[in-house]
Design a protein that fits this description.
This protein has 2 domains: 108 residues, Barwin-like endoglucanases (Beta Barrel), CATH 2.40.40; 87 residues, 2-Layer Sandwich (Alpha-Beta Plaits), CATH 3.30.70. By secondary structure, the protein is an alpha+beta fold. 34% of the residues are buried. Strands 5-9-6-8-7-10 form a 6-stranded mixed barrel.
Length: 256
């Protein structure tokens, strides 16, 4: 009888061990898995979503945006950063961390640029969760949500600077009926024919919102220069060009 009782206890212990392993596996499948800095899969409610490994500038998505603020201030985001409601960041379900996206409020046309560093929003039919600062920029604080257009404009985490360039890009130059706001720009092309400059501008407008055309006269000849950005120093322009222009075009000229 003693041996039978011991065998029964052993079987009972083995059963609970197997059950514990199954429960542990289920719990693990519901958690955030980190691999090479990316959240690969999130399971919660109607999830999982698989994160895109790579995304090209110009990728566009439409949907409803929301924002999150002081309740999450100081907490860790999905990529491990500390959430700062005054920084230009956002949560997205599938875009890789470090992706820079331009967000346009379709109700008023206002734009901002944010860097993806978190996962969400965890509400069906919403596509992006903006920081307080970004939501304020596009006039979304009073309404809480808004229909938006999301356009990928770059990678690598330099989104705050891209935000500055995007806003300055609204100040046009002589060709577009306005003026340049600062001393330096990046020339990505120069053409005798306007149609060729227009084609290049339209081609790269998906990459940089500040692409524009400037009409100049050199020794009596008219040229149409395709320019990107407005920069206060030559060094600032060159740094941006090396990081963002060179990978796409292969050459550039910083002009005064």
């Amino acid at each position: 009888m003693m041996r039978l009782s011991q065998r029964s206890e052993a079987l009972s212990t083995l059963k609970w061990f197997v059950v514990s392993l199954i429960i542990g596996a289920l719990v693990a499948s519901c958690s955030v898995k980190r691999e090479s800095g990316f959240v690969e899969r999130i399971r919660s409610g109607y999830y999982p979503y698989r994160v895109m490994k790579r995304v090209k500038p110009g990728y566009v998505q439409y949907g409803e945006a929301s924002w999150y603020g002081s309740k999450f201030q100081g907490r860790r985001t999905a990529d491990g950063e500390i959430y700062n409601m005054y920084a230009y960041t956002a949560a997205h379900k599938t875009l890789p961390f470090g992706t820079c996206v331009e967000v346009t409020n379709l109700n008023n046309g206002r734009k901002t640029v944010v860097r993806i560093n978190d996962r969400g929003p965890f509400v069906k039919n919403r596509v992006i969760d903006l920081s307080y600062a970004a939501a304020r920029d596009i006039g979304m604080i009073p309404t809480g949500t808004a229909p938006v257009k999301i356009r990928v404009v770059g990678m690598g985490g330099r989104c705050n600077r891209l935000n500055d360039y995007s806003k300055r890009g609204n100040v046009t130059n002589q060709m577009d009926g306005g003026y340049r706001a600062s001393s330096y720009a990046i020339q990505i092309g120069s053409f005798r024919k306007l149609i060729n400059a227009l084609r290049m501008r339209d081609r790269y407008a998906a990459y940089w919102s500040s692409v524009r055309i400037e009409r100049v006269t050199v020794d009596g000849d008219v040229y149409y220069r395709v320019l990107v950005g407005n920069f206060s120093t030559k060094e600032e322009a060159k740094e941006f060009a090396v990081d963002n222009i060179l990978p796409h075009i292969g050459n550039f000229v910083v002009v005064h």
